[in-house]
Every structure is written in C-alpha cells, then in structure tokens.
Design brief:
Number of domains: 2
Helix content: 40-55%
CATH architecture of the largest domain: 2-Layer Sandwich
CATH class of the largest domain: Alpha Beta
Structural class: alpha/beta
Number of strands: 5
Strand order of the largest sheet: 3-2-1-4-5
Length: 138
C-alpha cells in the first residue's frame, strides 16, 4: 500500500503547471494587439489617370500651368529649368494670368515623390489648389 502512495506522489510531482506560461502568452498577445492598432502607415493619396493616351497634350491647355519633372528631379516650367525655390513665384505669376487654371505636374516615373510634394506645396502657397499629377515614361 505504501508503494502505491509513493507512485502517485511521484506522478503528481511530474506534472507541469502551464498556467503561468499561458498568462505570459496572453499578456504578450494583448501587448501586440494594442501596439498594432496604433501603427499608421504614412501614404500620399494621388489620383493618377489609368490611360493617359486619350488626354490632350498639355501644351494645348492654355489655362493649366505645366510643370515637368525629369528623372534627375530637375523642374521645368515653360521648357525652362527652374529652381525649386522659384516655383511658387512662377506659379503665382502664371495663376494671375489665368486664375481658373490649375497646375499639371508631368513627372518622370523615376522622379522622387519629394519633388512632387514640393511643387504641390508651392502651388498651395500660391493659392492654387487644383494640382494634378500625370506620369510619363520617357
């Protein structure tokens, strides 16, 4: 009889209590759920037309201000290379000539987003809020 009691006590000691491990797992799960809900991805909402072949050439649009960006992030207005610091004043000047027009940015596909953002900010500082982006693959 004493032998049976001895076996049962040995079996009882061999069991592992998983409660503390489950507590840790649940705490980690709650931590990851809470931190994942606060992560917000930064993005830029840009409406790009799917088919640019049917659009009229930008040179024929007299009301719009055409700003071109090449692959090296060089900015051109009226086929002249301009510095980013003078974009706002040129847009303001051209907007005064035709106030109903907007700004059309024709950017190369390898141009950086910061160039477009700088031009859009300059246009907004010049009180022109209609800024469109047209990608070109040249």
């Amino acid at each position: 009889m004493s032998r049976r009691k001895h076996k049962q006590s040995a079996e009882d000691k061999a069991e592992i209590d998983l409660t503390p491990m489950l507590d840790v797992v649940f705490i980690m799960l709650i931590f990851f759920i809470v931190t994942a809900s606060f992560i917000k991805e930064k993005s830029l909402d840009v409406n790009v037309p799917e088919n640019t072949d049917n659009l009229p050439p930008p040179e024929t649009e007299s009301k719009s201000i055409l700003v071109q960006i090449n692959a090296n992030d060089e900015i051109f207005i009226d086929q002249r290379r301009v510095d980013i610091r003078s974009v706002r004043s040129l847009i303001a000047q051209k907007s005064a000539e035709s106030p109903e027009g907007g700004v059309v940015v024709m950017a190369h596909e390898h141009a950086s987003t910061s160039s477009y953002v700088a031009i859009a900010d300059a246009a907004r500082e010049a009180k022109v809020y209609n800024v469109s982006l047209i990608p070109r693959k040249k």
